Amino acid sequence: MNSDRVPAVIGQRIRQYRLNQDLTQEDLATLANVSLNAVKSAEGGKSTLPTYAAILQALGHIDNLLAAFPDEGVSPVQLLKSSTKQKQRASGKTRVQPADIGELDW
To answer: How many domains does one find in the chain?
Structure first.
């Protein structure tokens, strides 16, 4: 999936979550403590991360958002290199090539 389509897909899923719970946009706005326009924008795929988080929290789906960013902890290699302190920044020695744009499996 093209990364430009991701916000639209998120918006569609938020709309479906809302409809599955038989909530109006106004009800969701109240539950999420955001404006009606914020809900409409989110469902249209044009919102901010804090707004998406508030809406997903209100819908009981915040874990879906958090699942996209699992906690990896400290690398075992990093632990071996320095058992006293956690790495704070990247060295920049590793060069990354852009990934092929493929279908997301979520």
So the answer is: 1
